[in-house]
Structures are given as C-alpha cells and as structure tokens.
C-alpha cells in the first residue's frame, strides 16, 4: 500500500531542492507525492524564515493541516503525520512545539536525511521529535544515490550555509556555517542528472561563489574551477549558479563568464542597497562603487550578461538620501530583473536591535513602490529589447494554453511559443515577437533543430 506524502515548499530554491530530496528519501518507505494535503498520510511544511511574512505562513498553514487531520481521523481514514522542516523549524523549533503541540516532528535543513528514523519513531507514538542540531557530517553523505533531480532543468546543491553575517539576515543562524560539497560528489551527481535527461544545471548555494570544495588531491577548488570541470561533461548544455555575494566575485569567476560556453549569460548578484553608509550598517563589506566596478568588469567580459539583484528598502536608519543612492545604483546598473523587499526585523539578527532607527511602515511601502516602478520599467524595457531577435530556448514544459510550450532563454526569461509537445527537451531557436513584463512570446524559427524532430 502506498502512502501519500504532501510537501509544501516555501522560500528559496534551496528549499525546492531539499523538498525533492525528502520525497526521494521517503519513496523507499512507500510514500508517494500527492499534490493536495487532504487525505495525506504525512504532510511536511518546508518553511522559510527569511522575512516575517514568510515565517508567519507556517502557523496559518499548520492550522489548516490540523483541521484536515481531524477530518481524516473522523472519516476513520487513518492519521496524518505533521512535520515542519526548513528554516522556521531550525530557528523556532521549540516555539512551534509550544504553539502547535499537535505537530509530530520538527527538523532543520541539515537533518532531513534522518527522516526514515523520525518517521519510524513517530509511528511508534514516540511523542514529539525535535531535530535541529547541526550535524558535522553533511546530510549529503546520506542521500540515496538515486535521489537526484533529473528534470530538464535541475538544481544541484554544491554549497550550504553562510559565514557573511549580513546584519539583517537569518541564514547564518538557520543554515549554519558555510559547507562545500567535494568536487567529486558534485561531478558524480551531475553525471547522473545528465544521464537521467537533465540538460541545464543550476548550482545552488546560499553563498555559492564562496564555494571551496575539496578536490581529489585534497586541495580546494573555487566555484570557477568547479564550473570548468562541469562544463566538460558531455550532454550538459547549460550551467548557472545562484546566489552570489559581490565579495566573492573572484577574477577567475568573472573570466568564466567570458570563457565557458555553457555558462549562461545571467547572474543574480544581490547588492541590497546603493548607499555606502547603509551597506556598511548591513555589514556587506563592500561599497557601491566596488559593486559597480564588478558589474563593469563582468560586462567587459560578457557584454550581453543579464543582471539580477536583491534589494532591501527601509533598513534601520535609511534616509531619503540613502534611498536615492539605491535608485541611482539601479539606474546605473540597469537590471534585467530583480527582487525587492521591505526590511523585516528578524529576531536574533544584529539589525533587529537597532530599535531607535526603525523606518515607519508607510515610508518603507512608498520606497518599495518607487523602487519597484523603476525595476519593473527596466525589466519591461529589457524584455522589449528582444523583439525581432533570435534566441535559444530550452523548451521545458507545456504552457498555459493548448499547443503552447514554455522554456527559458539564456537570460532566464520565460519564453512562450506555439509548438507541439514532442519538442519538449529541445533547445530551439525562437524569433521573439513580444516582450512583456514577465515573459517573452515568439515563434519557432522555421527549419531550426526542433523543427527537424
Ligand atoms: N528583511 C528583508 N529582506 C531580507 N532579505 C534577507 N533578509 C531580509 C530581511 N530581514 C532579502 C535579501 C536577500 C533575499 C534572499 O532576501 O535581499 O538577498
Ligand atoms: Fe544572508 Fe548575507 Fe549570507 Fe546572503 S550573504 S545568506 S544575505 S548573511
């Protein structure tokens, strides 16, 4: 009898990757994934703690699961094991147990390889299970070898944790110190992914460009060196990495953007703010000018590089002038896309203690709206600049409309084209007809590779 496993994933790509691995680990125990929580035998919330809104969702979602479990028990349809995983679990494990005592297990991002044991314990009625230690031995060593992502475009975690301690950020506390997987493990996983059909790999890490995994020789490799190794693998068509810190954009990595064909011309390089005073208060350890210099160099090496970033408005003490500096930096860089957030104080982080300097909510909202107007205008202009051009699109899946496929351009744009579904998995040449705020629309170039299929 197969059991139904529901996993709800919040937050970053790392959580998406972790959720997929949890599903893989649970499969040998007879659990198969279900889309809906109703009737599930086990429900896992893989949570995000990065901003207050994200972490509040955990508790409202738990309330819903509790109702579903009661209904299931009323129907005499068995119990539902409720688990909270991820960064809220790591940061607020005890609090969850207190506020939601019906939760069976709470475990942090470094503990999901212990799932089989925890499930066995829960089924013996062993009470609450709280597993939020950071084990020294990496969870990766416990992954079943078949537990890999083989989607056409797939994620591969190469690095986890962060030693940067930006003053606003919980990641160093929830994900712990930086850890890099050994090169050989990553290459082996990439090979299995490619054998399973993956064409595009995105290397994941909270601080991915600080990667320093060990080589077979015992020396340590930079992210650029890892990229060169992976670029040699037959069948790998596209390579990306995320998320990066400006301090770690070493010369060899900048050059890889010029020299490695499969490395896609897209980079997510958060700067957070454009004022040196605020960057300093954020403990970012670089100036706005240094960030501009990195961007200039990247564009020298790879003129068509699409840039993305993250921004926080309303960091404690941010003046109108500081905010204007952020707008100016955005104007100077000209982003292809970006994410922006209102500062959200996170318990235990240094910035949360800057009580006297908190920015009123309405000021934060106004600044966010203004920044987003600028970023959205840049994104639209960027997308519109593609009209009439030919781009290569990895056709990944069916679109919303009948007879439509969607894929990504090298620059990370979603591209919709009319095409029969047998072309999924092809890298097709598309002539762009329309550039919208969040996507491109086009048609397959007659006679391109996909057409021959
Ligand atoms: N408040 C608002 N935004 C935050 N981020 C991280 N911590 C906070 C916070 N406390 C944003 C940063 C980071 C992205 C993942 O989330 O911009 O790059
Ligand atoms: Fe958080 Fe800064 Fe580390 Fe990014 S670099 S995860 S923002 S502490």
Automatic annotation (TrEMBL):
<dbReference type="InterPro" id="IPR038135">
    <property type="entry name" value="Methylthiotransferase_N_sf"/>
</dbReference>
<keyword id="KW-0408">Iron</keyword>
<keyword id="KW-0819">tRNA processing</keyword>
<dbReference type="InterPro" id="IPR007197">
    <property type="entry name" value="rSAM"/>
</dbReference>
<dbReference type="InterPro" id="IPR020612">
    <property type="entry name" value="Methylthiotransferase_CS"/>
</dbReference>
<keyword id="KW-0479">Metal-binding</keyword>
<dbReference type="InterPro" id="IPR006463">
    <property type="entry name" value="MiaB_methiolase"/>
</dbReference>
<keyword id="KW-0808">Transferase</keyword>
<dbReference type="InterPro" id="IPR002792">
    <property type="entry name" value="TRAM_dom"/>
</dbReference>
<protein>
    <recommendedName>
        <fullName>tRNA-2-methylthio-N(6)-dimethylallyladenosine synthase</fullName>
        <ecNumber>2.8.4.3</ecNumber>
    </recommendedName>
</protein>
<dbReference type="InterPro" id="IPR023404">
    <property type="entry name" value="rSAM_horseshoe"/>
</dbReference>
<comment type="function">
    <text>Catalyzes the methylthiolation of N6-(dimethylallyl)adenosine (i(6)A), leading to the formation of 2-methylthio-N6-(dimethylallyl)adenosine (ms(2)i(6)A) at position 37 in tRNAs that read codons beginning with uridine.</text>
</comment>
<dbReference type="Pfam" id="PF01938">
    <property type="entry name" value="TRAM"/>
</dbReference>
<feature type="binding site">
    <location>
        <position position="87"/>
    </location>
    <ligand>
        <name>[4Fe-4S] cluster 1</name>
    </ligand>
</feature>
<comment type="similarity">
    <text>Belongs to the methylthiotransferase family. MiaB subfamily.</text>
</comment>
<dbReference type="Pfam" id="PF00919">
    <property type="entry name" value="UPF0004"/>
</dbReference>
<feature type="binding site">
    <location>
        <position position="166"/>
    </location>
    <ligand>
        <name>[4Fe-4S] cluster 2</name>
    </ligand>
</feature>
<dbReference type="Pfam" id="PF04055">
    <property type="entry name" value="Radical_SAM"/>
</dbReference>
<keyword id="KW-0963">Cytoplasm</keyword>
<keyword id="KW-0004">4Fe-4S</keyword>
<feature type="binding site">
    <location>
        <position position="169"/>
    </location>
    <ligand>
        <name>[4Fe-4S] cluster 2</name>
    </ligand>
</feature>
<feature type="domain" description="TRAM">
    <location>
        <begin position="384"/>
        <end position="446"/>
    </location>
</feature>
<feature type="domain" description="MTTase N-terminal">
    <location>
        <begin position="3"/>
        <end position="124"/>
    </location>
</feature>
<dbReference type="InterPro" id="IPR013848">
    <property type="entry name" value="Methylthiotransferase_N"/>
</dbReference>
<dbReference type="InterPro" id="IPR058240">
    <property type="entry name" value="rSAM_sf"/>
</dbReference>
<feature type="binding site">
    <location>
        <position position="12"/>
    </location>
    <ligand>
        <name>[4Fe-4S] cluster 1</name>
    </ligand>
</feature>
<comment type="subunit">
    <text>Monomer.</text>
</comment>
<dbReference type="InterPro" id="IPR006638">
    <property type="entry name" value="Elp3/MiaA/NifB-like_rSAM"/>
</dbReference>
<feature type="domain" description="Radical SAM core">
    <location>
        <begin position="148"/>
        <end position="381"/>
    </location>
</feature>
<feature type="binding site">
    <location>
        <position position="48"/>
    </location>
    <ligand>
        <name>[4Fe-4S] cluster 1</name>
    </ligand>
</feature>
<dbReference type="InterPro" id="IPR005839">
    <property type="entry name" value="Methylthiotransferase"/>
</dbReference>
<feature type="binding site">
    <location>
        <position position="162"/>
    </location>
    <ligand>
        <name>[4Fe-4S] cluster 2</name>
    </ligand>
</feature>
<keyword id="KW-0949">S-adenosyl-L-methionine</keyword>
<dbReference type="GO" id="GO:0035597">
    <property type="term" value="F:tRNA-2-methylthio-N(6)-dimethylallyladenosine(37) synthase activity"/>
</dbReference>
<keyword id="KW-0411">Iron-sulfur</keyword>
